Design the sequence.
């Protein structure tokens, strides 16, 4: 089915700050439409808003607040806090809506907004399309000074919403995260380096690990509004890897800007990706009869080695489109309680309604403590098959419809099927990129296949732009 949404992508609304759609007027319109969509009944409606540490967060927060208040919704401001904390507080505060201001792993110049329903789950494609339809139908003028420029049913002057800050939001999430760790178990004797990417978890993650008994070395905890995800965090592990070795730590934990994804580093400095974390947790939970649904859910990007490993354990791997929302939808449909992405979004439905990097780390640490094994052993649960991934920045996605591109892709799929391999080509939902991934047992052949496709797409892109 063709996605006709204008500004919602795979993870909410995202773009460069102060460029459409991440502009004050557009964000206010989105807030007003979301308020209208989620105003149900005659009770006083509430929305909670959290953010990461981007400089533009102040602008987005103010615009959202103005939009919600104008529609009669009360606003609870959480300040810098991980995305999963916003989802949790949306539920526990019995709010009608939750919003996280973040562009996740993107650089600081980008920003975005993610919505959570009253149940703490991200909105479906249908719900996001309905918000867009409200904006289009309301015909809100860009000139907000014009009288009657908006046909949106604004609240009466006596029914405007109120806004206030929740002072103990951080403490509530810290206690929630600690409660997911096995009762009676501690992290005493473990030296852990935690990289918070100068992002939303810079206060909470080190404190949770320290309060559970670990010896903590914290990096990426000095946000200045512009250094979020800058050569740090889950998308750039080199600083963490060096720090683990320099401090002779037992392992390292890397979160991204909004702390909804996790990557780890063992005591040798080797990376442990989301697929390995999924395999470790799934195996442990299956041994304890805690794994539901007969397997796990992951995306088409997950390594073929993970699938083969799970098959050997009589567990299934259900694949979905890329995006933790789609993973979660499949988890709910198939009754699974473990799912995630190779990139580090790990969803553990026993505890959370969305990806939570810190809680995934705690579950991994509990296995390490229980089995009393080094991270380098537990972090190699399966042997991954070779995987080659390339991203192409394009002027548009038209090259994917080009005849020569379609032909080279068809030929590549045929070659890979002979080798039990896999090919995935997709549009990024957050950046103007075409992502190409191939997996199989012959790495040299994969590299050749990927390069042939890249070359063909680049030629088609230049022709389309001419």
Sequence:
């Amino acid at each position: 089915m063709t996605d006709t949404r204008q500004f919602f992508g795979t993870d909410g609304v995202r773009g460069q700050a102060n460029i459409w759609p991440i502009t004050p007027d557009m964000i206010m319109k989105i807030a007003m439409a979301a308020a209208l969509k989620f105003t149900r009944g005659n009770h006083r409606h509430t929305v909670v808003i959290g953010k990461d540490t981007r400089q533009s967060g102040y602008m987005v927060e103010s615009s959202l607040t103005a939009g919600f208040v104008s529609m009669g919704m009360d606003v609870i401001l959480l300040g810098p806090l991980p995305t999963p904390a916003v989802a949790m507080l949306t539920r526990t505060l019995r709010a009608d809506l939750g919003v996280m201001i973040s562009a996740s792993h993107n650089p600081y110049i980008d920003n975005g907004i993610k919505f959570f329903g009253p149940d703490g789950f991200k909105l479906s494609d249908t719900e996001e399309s309905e918000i867009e339809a409200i904006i289009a139908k309301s015909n809100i003028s860009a000139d907000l000074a014009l009288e009657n420029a908006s046909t949106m049913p604004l609240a009466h002057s006596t029914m405007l919403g109120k806004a206030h800050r929740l002072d103990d939001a951080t403490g509530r999430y810290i206690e929630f995260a600690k409660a997911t760790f096995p009762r009676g178990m501690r992290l005493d004797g473990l030296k852990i380096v935690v990289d918070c990417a100068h992002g939303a978890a810079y206060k909470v993650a080190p404190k949770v690990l320290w309060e559970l008994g670990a010896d903590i070395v914290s990096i990426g905890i000095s946000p200045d509004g512009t250094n979020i995800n800058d050569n740090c965090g889950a998308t750039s592990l080199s600083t963490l890897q060096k720090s683990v070795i320099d401090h002779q730590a037992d392992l390292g934990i890397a979160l991204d800007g909004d702390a909804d994804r996790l990557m780890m580093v063992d005591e040798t400095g080797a990376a442990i990706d989301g697929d390995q974390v999924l395999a470790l947790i799934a195996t442990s939970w299956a041994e304890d009869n805690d794994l539901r649904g007969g397997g796990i859910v992951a995306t088409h990007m997950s390594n073929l080695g993970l699938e083969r490993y799970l098959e050997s354990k009589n567990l299934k791997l259900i694949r979905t489109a890329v995006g933790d929302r789609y993973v979660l939808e499949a988890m709910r449909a198939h009754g699974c309680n473990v799912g995630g992405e190779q990139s580090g979004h790990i969803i553990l439905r026993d505890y959370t309604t969305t990806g939570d990097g810190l809680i995934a780390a705690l579950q991994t640490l509990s296995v390490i403590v229980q089995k009393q094994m080094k991270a380098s052993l537990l972090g190699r649960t399966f042997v991954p098959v070779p995987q080659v991934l390339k991203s192409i920045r394009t002027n548009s996605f038209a090259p994917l419809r080009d005849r020569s591109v379609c032909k080279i892709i068809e030929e590549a799929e045929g070659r890979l099927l002979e080798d039990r391999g896999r090919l995935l080509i997709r549009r990024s939902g957050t950046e103007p990129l075409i992502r190409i991934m191939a997996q199989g047992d012959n790495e040299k052949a994969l590299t050749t296949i990927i390069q042939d496709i890249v070359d063909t797409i680049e030629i088609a892109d230049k022709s389309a732009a001419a």
